């Protein structure tokens, strides 16, 4: 007994350009009805959704987003830089009698200690910067280069305030220049690199 595979005949429509019938691919699910809710289940919006219309007009991060972004970015940068410094410091501390396990242990200990130390220090600097910038934006209702420069000045001064007025003034000036340079570089990247 021979079995024949059932192949339903596809709909044929004449193709006016070629003068021959055009075939349509067979869809095995054409008779299955899918509820509308399931069809649109994964049609998610691509733009942010806001509870209030005023939120959509604002083009800057909230204070919570600022704190999270700056603190996290600074901690990650400090951890990576500190880990790299610790790696080279651990390699420099090798002794001639060290085994491979001891060398690996020295590198891991040095990288972990330096990465943790630098990450915590820069994370605190990012937290102070985010707090000062969010406060300045709330007071002036402006988010521009001068707000970032003021936040950099304040951050540098606060971080070095315990070492005296002169040290706080120098650190504040360096912080303001650094913040201004970062904002100017970001604006240049937006304008010329279209990022």
TrEMBL record:
Residues 1-14 have a biased composition (Basic and acidic residues). Residues 1-23 are annotated as: Disordered. One of its GO terms (cellular component) is TIM23 mitochondrial import inner membrane translocase complex. One of its GO terms (molecular function) is protein transmembrane transporter activity. InterPro entries: Tim23-like. Keywords: Membrane, Transmembrane, Transmembrane helix. GO terms for biological process: protein import into mitochondrial matrix. It is a multi-pass membrane protein. It is found in: Membrane. This is Mitochondrial import inner membrane translocase subunit TIM23. It comes from Turnera subulata.
């Amino acid at each position: 007994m021979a079995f024949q595979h059932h192949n339903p005949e596809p709909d044929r429509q004449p193709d006016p350009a070629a003068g021959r019938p055009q075939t349509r691919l067979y869809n095995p699910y054409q008779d299955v009805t899918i509820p509308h809710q399931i069809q649109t289940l994964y049609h998610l919006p691509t733009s942010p959704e806001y509870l209030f219309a005023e939120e959509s007009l604002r083009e800057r991060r909230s204070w919570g987003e600022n704190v999270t972004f700056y603190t996290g970015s600074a901690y990650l940068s400090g951890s990576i830089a500190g880990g790299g410094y610790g790696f080279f410091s651990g390699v420099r501390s090798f002794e001639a009698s060290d085994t491979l396990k001891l060398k690996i242990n020295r590198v891991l200990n040095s990288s972990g200690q330096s990465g943790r130390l630098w990450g915590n220090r820069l994370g605190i600097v990012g937290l102070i910067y985010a707090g000062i910038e969010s406060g300045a934006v709330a007071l002036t209702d402006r988010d521009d280069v001068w707000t970032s420069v003021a936040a950099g000045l304040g951050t540098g001064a606060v971080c070095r305030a315990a070492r005296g007025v002169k040290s706080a003034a120098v650190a504040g000036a360096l912080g303001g220049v650094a913040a201004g340079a970062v904002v100017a570089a970001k604006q240049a990247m937006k304008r010329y690199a279209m990022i």
